[in-house]
Amino acid sequence: MNVFSNEITRLFNIEKPIIQAGMIWASGWQLASAVSNAGGLGIIGSGSMYPNVLKEHIIKCKAATDKPFAVNVPLLYPNIEEHIQIIIENKVPIVFTSAGNPKSFTSILKAAGIKVVHVVSSSKFAQKAEAAGCDAVVAEGFEAGGHNGREETTSFVLIPAVKEKISIPVIAAGGIATGRQMLAAMILGASAVQIGSRFIVSDEASCHINFKNAVISAGEGDTELSLKKLTPVRLLKNKFYDEVKSAENQNASVEELSTLLGRGRAKKGMFEGDLEEGELEIGQACTQLNKIQPAAEIVNEIWGEYNALLRSFHK
Ligand SMILES: Cc1cc2nc3c(=O)[nH]c(=O)nc-3n(C[C@H](O)[C@H](O)[C@H](O)COP(=O)(O)O)c2cc1C
After folding, report:
1. Quick one: pLDDT band at residue 296, thresholds 50, 70, 90?
2. Ligand 1 within 6 A of 98 CB?
3. What is the domain extent for residue 44?
4. pTM higher than 0.90 for the full model?
Protein backbone atom coordinates (compact mmCIF):
# COMPACT_ATOMS: atom_id res chain seq x y z
CA MET A 1 0.00 0.00 0.00
CA ASN A 2 1.21 3.50 -0.84
CA VAL A 3 1.35 5.46 2.41
CA PHE A 4 1.11 9.23 2.00
CA SER A 5 3.53 11.29 4.04
CA ASN A 6 4.38 14.98 4.18
CA GLU A 7 5.38 17.58 6.78
CA ILE A 8 1.83 17.95 8.11
CA THR A 9 0.92 14.26 8.29
CA ARG A 10 4.22 13.69 10.13
CA LEU A 11 3.71 16.69 12.42
CA PHE A 12 0.25 15.52 13.51
CA ASN A 13 0.80 11.77 13.00
CA ILE A 14 -2.22 11.46 10.70
CA GLU A 15 -2.78 9.60 7.42
CA LYS A 16 -4.41 12.23 5.20
CA PRO A 17 -3.63 15.96 5.08
CA ILE A 18 -7.31 16.83 5.56
CA ILE A 19 -8.28 18.83 8.63
CA GLN A 20 -11.86 19.42 9.75
CA ALA A 21 -12.08 23.00 11.00
CA GLY A 22 -13.05 23.92 14.53
CA MET A 23 -16.52 25.52 14.26
CA ILE A 24 -18.69 26.99 17.00
CA TRP A 25 -21.96 25.12 17.55
CA ALA A 26 -21.02 22.47 14.98
CA SER A 27 -17.81 20.62 15.78
CA GLY A 28 -18.08 18.59 18.95
CA TRP A 29 -16.56 15.20 19.77
CA GLN A 30 -18.81 13.28 17.35
CA LEU A 31 -17.54 15.17 14.28
CA ALA A 32 -13.94 15.43 15.46
CA SER A 33 -13.64 11.72 16.28
CA ALA A 34 -15.33 10.69 13.00
CA VAL A 35 -12.83 12.72 10.96
CA SER A 36 -9.84 11.49 12.97
CA ASN A 37 -11.04 7.89 12.64
CA ALA A 38 -11.21 8.44 8.85
CA GLY A 39 -7.51 9.37 8.82
CA GLY A 40 -7.82 13.16 8.82
CA LEU A 41 -7.52 15.50 11.79
CA GLY A 42 -10.73 16.29 13.65
CA ILE A 43 -10.99 19.48 15.69
CA ILE A 44 -13.28 20.21 18.63
CA GLY A 45 -14.45 23.84 18.40
CA SER A 46 -14.24 25.18 21.96
CA GLY A 47 -15.51 28.69 21.10
CA SER A 48 -19.11 27.82 21.96
CA MET A 49 -18.31 25.66 25.01
CA TYR A 50 -18.13 26.41 28.72
CA PRO A 51 -15.02 24.88 30.30
CA ASN A 52 -16.91 21.87 31.77
CA VAL A 53 -18.51 21.19 28.36
CA LEU A 54 -15.12 21.31 26.64
CA LYS A 55 -13.74 18.82 29.16
CA GLU A 56 -16.64 16.45 28.49
CA HIS A 57 -16.07 16.68 24.73
CA ILE A 58 -12.35 15.96 25.08
CA ILE A 59 -13.01 12.92 27.26
CA LYS A 60 -15.69 11.60 24.85
CA CYS A 61 -13.45 12.24 21.83
CA LYS A 62 -10.65 10.23 23.44
CA ALA A 63 -13.06 7.37 24.08
CA ALA A 64 -14.29 7.47 20.46
CA THR A 65 -10.89 7.52 18.73
CA ASP A 66 -7.34 6.47 19.47
CA LYS A 67 -6.14 8.78 16.68
CA PRO A 68 -4.83 12.34 17.22
CA PHE A 69 -7.37 15.15 17.37
CA ALA A 70 -7.15 18.88 18.16
CA VAL A 71 -9.03 21.64 19.98
CA ASN A 72 -9.61 25.06 18.39
CA VAL A 73 -9.33 27.98 20.78
CA PRO A 74 -10.60 31.29 19.33
CA LEU A 75 -8.76 33.82 21.47
CA LEU A 76 -11.60 36.37 21.33
CA TYR A 77 -13.96 34.38 23.53
CA PRO A 78 -14.07 34.33 27.36
CA ASN A 79 -12.80 31.41 29.50
CA ILE A 80 -9.56 31.12 27.50
CA GLU A 81 -7.34 30.48 30.50
CA GLU A 82 -9.63 27.76 31.83
CA HIS A 83 -9.82 26.19 28.35
CA ILE A 84 -6.03 26.14 28.06
CA GLN A 85 -5.73 24.51 31.48
CA ILE A 86 -8.26 21.80 30.60
CA ILE A 87 -6.47 21.15 27.29
CA ILE A 88 -3.13 20.72 29.06
CA GLU A 89 -4.54 18.60 31.91
CA ASN A 90 -6.32 16.31 29.47
CA LYS A 91 -3.25 15.93 27.24
CA VAL A 92 -4.80 17.13 23.99
CA PRO A 93 -1.96 16.69 21.45
CA ILE A 94 -2.70 19.63 19.11
CA VAL A 95 -4.25 23.11 19.49
CA PHE A 96 -5.40 25.46 16.74
CA THR A 97 -5.62 29.06 18.03
CA SER A 98 -7.43 31.77 16.07
CA ALA A 99 -8.77 35.33 16.26
CA GLY A 100 -6.09 36.82 18.46
CA ASN A 101 -2.40 37.23 19.17
CA PRO A 102 -0.41 33.99 18.70
CA LYS A 103 2.03 35.16 21.38
CA SER A 104 -0.58 34.84 24.15
CA PHE A 105 -0.55 31.07 24.71
CA THR A 106 1.84 29.42 22.23
CA SER A 107 4.79 29.14 24.62
CA ILE A 108 2.61 27.77 27.46
CA LEU A 109 1.12 25.11 25.17
CA LYS A 110 4.49 24.22 23.61
CA ALA A 111 6.02 23.85 27.09
CA ALA A 112 3.31 21.24 27.76
CA GLY A 113 4.39 19.31 24.63
CA ILE A 114 1.39 20.43 22.54
CA LYS A 115 1.68 21.21 18.81
CA VAL A 116 0.34 24.70 18.10
CA VAL A 117 -1.14 26.03 14.88
CA HIS A 118 -2.43 29.59 14.46
CA VAL A 119 -5.01 30.78 11.92
CA VAL A 120 -4.04 33.88 9.90
CA SER A 121 -5.51 35.91 7.06
CA SER A 122 -2.35 37.75 5.99
CA SER A 123 1.35 37.02 5.49
CA LYS A 124 2.20 39.61 8.15
CA PHE A 125 0.31 37.61 10.78
CA ALA A 126 1.80 34.37 9.43
CA GLN A 127 5.25 35.79 10.21
CA LYS A 128 4.06 36.75 13.71
CA ALA A 129 2.80 33.19 14.25
CA GLU A 130 6.14 31.77 13.14
CA ALA A 131 7.99 34.20 15.45
CA ALA A 132 5.69 33.16 18.33
CA GLY A 133 6.90 29.56 17.89
CA CYS A 134 3.89 28.01 16.14
CA ASP A 135 4.44 24.68 14.37
CA ALA A 136 2.29 25.63 11.35
CA VAL A 137 -0.23 28.23 10.22
CA VAL A 138 -3.66 28.02 8.66
CA ALA A 139 -3.85 30.60 5.84
CA GLU A 140 -7.57 31.38 5.70
CA GLY A 141 -8.82 33.20 2.61
CA PHE A 142 -11.74 35.55 2.05
CA GLU A 143 -14.01 32.73 0.82
CA ALA A 144 -14.09 31.05 4.24
CA GLY A 145 -17.04 30.70 6.55
CA GLY A 146 -16.87 32.21 10.02
CA HIS A 147 -14.72 35.12 11.18
CA ASN A 148 -12.26 36.42 8.66
CA GLY A 149 -9.68 39.11 7.86
CA ARG A 150 -10.70 42.64 6.88
CA GLU A 151 -8.33 42.71 3.92
CA GLU A 152 -10.45 40.32 1.82
CA THR A 153 -7.42 38.42 0.48
CA THR A 154 -8.63 35.38 -1.43
CA SER A 155 -7.14 31.92 -0.88
CA PHE A 156 -5.65 31.99 -4.39
CA VAL A 157 -3.53 35.01 -3.47
CA LEU A 158 -3.02 34.33 0.24
CA ILE A 159 -1.65 30.77 0.12
CA PRO A 160 1.40 31.48 -2.11
CA ALA A 161 2.00 34.84 -0.38
CA VAL A 162 2.14 33.16 3.05
CA LYS A 163 4.20 30.26 1.68
CA GLU A 164 6.86 32.68 0.47
CA LYS A 165 7.15 34.49 3.78
CA ILE A 166 7.52 31.65 6.31
CA SER A 167 9.35 28.36 6.62
CA ILE A 168 6.84 26.48 8.83
CA PRO A 169 4.13 24.46 7.01
CA VAL A 170 1.06 26.18 5.55
CA ILE A 171 -2.44 24.71 5.85
CA ALA A 172 -4.89 26.26 3.39
CA ALA A 173 -8.46 27.18 4.33
CA GLY A 174 -11.29 29.04 2.63
CA GLY A 175 -13.27 27.81 -0.34
CA ILE A 176 -12.02 24.22 -0.25
CA ALA A 177 -14.77 21.60 -0.42
CA THR A 178 -13.60 19.11 -3.05
CA GLY A 179 -10.51 17.16 -4.07
CA ARG A 180 -10.06 19.50 -7.03
CA GLN A 181 -9.93 22.53 -4.75
CA MET A 182 -7.62 20.66 -2.39
CA LEU A 183 -5.22 19.91 -5.23
CA ALA A 184 -5.22 23.59 -6.27
CA ALA A 185 -4.42 24.61 -2.67
CA MET A 186 -1.57 22.09 -2.45
CA ILE A 187 -0.12 23.33 -5.75
CA LEU A 188 -0.31 26.91 -4.43
CA GLY A 189 1.92 25.94 -1.52
CA ALA A 190 -0.20 24.25 1.15
CA SER A 191 0.79 21.01 2.86
CA ALA A 192 -2.76 20.31 4.05
CA VAL A 193 -6.24 21.77 3.90
CA GLN A 194 -8.61 22.89 6.66
CA ILE A 195 -12.23 22.47 5.64
CA GLY A 196 -15.19 24.00 7.46
CA SER A 197 -18.31 24.55 5.38
CA ARG A 198 -18.40 21.08 3.84
CA PHE A 199 -18.32 19.44 7.29
CA ILE A 200 -21.32 21.54 8.36
CA VAL A 201 -23.37 19.28 6.11
CA SER A 202 -22.16 16.09 7.76
CA ASP A 203 -24.31 13.76 9.87
CA GLU A 204 -22.04 14.29 12.86
CA ALA A 205 -22.01 18.12 12.87
CA SER A 206 -23.94 19.23 15.96
CA CYS A 207 -25.56 22.28 14.32
CA HIS A 208 -29.33 22.35 13.69
CA ILE A 209 -30.84 20.49 10.72
CA ASN A 210 -32.53 23.75 9.59
CA PHE A 211 -29.07 25.31 9.25
CA LYS A 212 -27.71 22.29 7.36
CA ASN A 213 -30.67 22.43 4.95
CA ALA A 214 -30.25 26.19 4.47
CA VAL A 215 -26.59 25.60 3.56
CA ILE A 216 -27.57 22.98 0.99
CA SER A 217 -30.10 25.38 -0.58
CA ALA A 218 -27.63 28.29 -0.74
CA GLY A 219 -26.06 29.29 -4.04
CA GLU A 220 -23.56 31.75 -5.50
CA GLY A 221 -23.82 35.20 -3.94
CA ASP A 222 -25.83 34.01 -0.94
CA THR A 223 -23.09 34.88 1.57
CA GLU A 224 -21.27 38.11 2.35
CA LEU A 225 -18.43 39.20 4.63
CA SER A 226 -20.32 41.43 7.05
CA LEU A 227 -19.81 43.35 10.30
CA LYS A 228 -16.37 44.50 9.15
CA LYS A 229 -16.40 47.38 11.64
CA LEU A 230 -16.94 44.93 14.48
CA THR A 231 -15.52 41.45 13.84
CA PRO A 232 -15.75 40.52 10.15
CA VAL A 233 -17.79 37.36 9.62
CA ARG A 234 -19.16 35.70 6.47
CA LEU A 235 -22.93 35.42 6.85
CA LEU A 236 -25.57 33.54 4.96
CA LYS A 237 -28.12 36.11 3.81
CA ASN A 238 -31.29 36.09 5.93
CA LYS A 239 -33.41 38.55 7.90
CA PHE A 240 -30.64 39.17 10.44
CA TYR A 241 -28.14 39.80 7.60
CA ASP A 242 -30.61 42.29 6.03
CA GLU A 243 -30.75 44.19 9.33
CA VAL A 244 -26.95 44.25 9.54
CA LYS A 245 -26.68 45.41 5.94
CA SER A 246 -29.19 48.19 6.41
CA ALA A 247 -27.44 49.37 9.63
CA GLU A 248 -24.09 49.30 7.81
CA ASN A 249 -25.55 51.29 4.90
CA GLN A 250 -26.63 53.91 7.43
CA ASN A 251 -23.07 54.01 8.75
CA ALA A 252 -23.95 52.45 12.11
CA SER A 253 -21.34 52.84 14.85
CA VAL A 254 -19.49 49.92 16.45
CA GLU A 255 -21.77 50.28 19.51
CA GLU A 256 -24.92 50.19 17.36
CA LEU A 257 -23.69 47.11 15.53
CA SER A 258 -22.81 45.40 18.84
CA THR A 259 -26.32 46.13 20.12
CA LEU A 260 -27.86 44.74 16.92
CA LEU A 261 -25.75 41.59 17.18
CA GLY A 262 -26.63 41.23 20.86
CA ARG A 263 -25.82 38.00 22.64
CA GLY A 264 -26.48 34.46 21.49
CA ARG A 265 -27.19 35.22 17.79
CA ALA A 266 -24.88 32.48 16.52
CA LYS A 267 -26.37 29.90 18.90
CA LYS A 268 -29.87 30.97 17.88
CA GLY A 269 -29.14 30.50 14.18
CA MET A 270 -26.76 27.59 13.94
CA PHE A 271 -27.68 25.53 17.03
CA GLU A 272 -31.34 26.33 17.55
CA GLY A 273 -32.18 26.59 13.85
CA ASP A 274 -33.79 30.06 13.81
CA LEU A 275 -33.14 30.94 10.18
CA GLU A 276 -34.67 34.44 10.47
CA GLU A 277 -33.22 35.97 13.63
CA GLY A 278 -30.08 33.88 13.98
CA GLU A 279 -26.53 34.47 12.72
CA LEU A 280 -25.68 31.86 10.10
CA GLU A 281 -21.96 31.49 9.35
CA ILE A 282 -20.97 29.69 6.16
CA GLY A 283 -18.38 30.00 3.40
CA GLN A 284 -18.74 30.65 -0.31
CA ALA A 285 -18.26 26.91 -0.88
CA CYS A 286 -21.88 26.40 0.22
CA THR A 287 -22.74 26.70 -3.44
CA GLN A 288 -21.10 23.30 -4.03
CA LEU A 289 -22.84 21.48 -1.20
CA ASN A 290 -25.92 19.46 -2.00
CA LYS A 291 -26.28 16.67 0.56
CA ILE A 292 -25.77 15.68 4.16
CA GLN A 293 -23.45 12.70 4.48
CA PRO A 294 -21.21 10.94 7.02
CA ALA A 295 -17.99 12.83 7.82
CA ALA A 296 -15.84 9.80 6.92
CA GLU A 297 -17.45 9.73 3.47
CA ILE A 298 -16.57 13.43 3.01
CA VAL A 299 -12.93 12.77 3.93
CA ASN A 300 -12.74 9.77 1.60
CA GLU A 301 -14.45 11.52 -1.32
CA ILE A 302 -12.11 14.52 -1.12
CA TRP A 303 -9.01 12.33 -0.74
CA GLY A 304 -10.11 10.02 -3.56
CA GLU A 305 -10.80 12.89 -5.96
CA TYR A 306 -7.51 14.60 -5.02
CA ASN A 307 -5.49 11.47 -5.77
CA ALA A 308 -7.36 10.64 -8.99
CA LEU A 309 -6.77 14.16 -10.31
CA LEU A 310 -3.12 14.06 -9.27
CA ARG A 311 -2.64 10.81 -11.18
CA SER A 312 -4.41 12.22 -14.24
CA PHE A 313 -1.74 14.94 -14.50
CA HIS A 314 0.93 12.29 -15.07
CA LYS A 315 -0.84 10.56 -17.95
C1 LIG B 1 -20.25 27.65 11.07
C2 LIG B 1 -18.80 28.00 11.17
C3 LIG B 1 -18.24 28.25 12.41
C4 LIG B 1 -16.89 28.56 12.52
N5 LIG B 1 -16.35 28.72 13.78
C6 LIG B 1 -15.01 28.91 13.91
C7 LIG B 1 -14.41 28.93 15.20
O8 LIG B 1 -15.06 28.75 16.23
N9 LIG B 1 -13.06 29.11 15.26
C10 LIG B 1 -12.29 29.29 14.13
O11 LIG B 1 -11.07 29.44 14.25
N12 LIG B 1 -12.85 29.28 12.90
C13 LIG B 1 -14.17 29.06 12.77
N14 LIG B 1 -14.72 28.96 11.50
C15 LIG B 1 -13.82 28.99 10.34
C16 LIG B 1 -13.32 27.58 10.06
O17 LIG B 1 -12.49 27.15 11.11
C18 LIG B 1 -12.55 27.41 8.74
O19 LIG B 1 -11.30 28.07 8.78
C20 LIG B 1 -13.35 27.87 7.53
O21 LIG B 1 -14.65 27.37 7.61
C22 LIG B 1 -12.66 27.39 6.25
O23 LIG B 1 -13.33 27.83 5.12
P24 LIG B 1 -14.54 27.04 4.39
O25 LIG B 1 -15.73 27.33 5.22
O26 LIG B 1 -14.57 27.64 3.05
O27 LIG B 1 -14.18 25.58 4.40
C28 LIG B 1 -16.07 28.65 11.37
C29 LIG B 1 -16.65 28.41 10.11
C30 LIG B 1 -17.98 28.07 10.01
C31 LIG B 1 -18.55 27.75 8.65
Report:
1. very high
2. yes
3. 7-206+289-312
4. yes
